[in-house]
Amino acid sequence: MGLLTLITVLLVGLGTAQGLRFVKAPKGARTAGWSLILIVMLWVWYMVAADYGYGAVSGTYTLRREGESSTLVLWRDRSFQQQLSHAGEDIRSQGTWRRSGEGGIEFSKEFLKVSGQQSCFGGKPCGVVVKRLGLFLSIRLGQDGDGPIFRKKLFQ
Hints:
eight-stranded antiparallel β-barrel, alpha+beta, Lipocalin, 10 strands, 3 helices, two-stranded antiparallel ribbon, 2 domains
C-alpha cells in the first residue's frame, strides 16, 4: 500500500480513493490506520503531559478561598506579577520564580503570602506544579504541596 493510499485511508476512514469511486479498504489496512492514529494521539498527549518546562508552567493562575482571591501571572522570562485581594484591600507584587526538580517551583521573597500557606526552605515561598490528566495545571503551595491551590486558566 502506497503512502498516498494510506493517507487517504486515514482521512476517509472507510475506504481508499480509486479514481472518483471509493471502495472499502481491507480490514487490515483500516486496523493499521486506526492504530497509527491512536499511537500519534498518545504521543502528542505524552509530549504535553510530560512537559514541565518554563513555557508550559507560565500562564495565569487564580486562587479563591476563605474570603480572599489572588491572581498570579507567571511569565516565561521567570518573572511574576501577583495581585492579592483580602478584606477589600488589593495588594500587588512583582518578583521572580524558578522551577526546581521535575515538579517543584520556588518564588522570590516578593511573593504575597495567602492564608494557609507555609514557607519552605529558608522561609522562601514554594510549591509543587501538578498536572491532572497531564493537561490541567495547578500550583499547590507548600513544600509537600498540601497548601492553597492556584489553578491555571485554560484560556487567556
